[in-house]
Amino acid sequence: MESKEKKQIPLRLSAKLWQEISQWAEDDFRSVNGQIEYLLNECVKNRKKVKKQER
Question: What is the pTM of this model?
Answer without folding.
Answer: 0.82
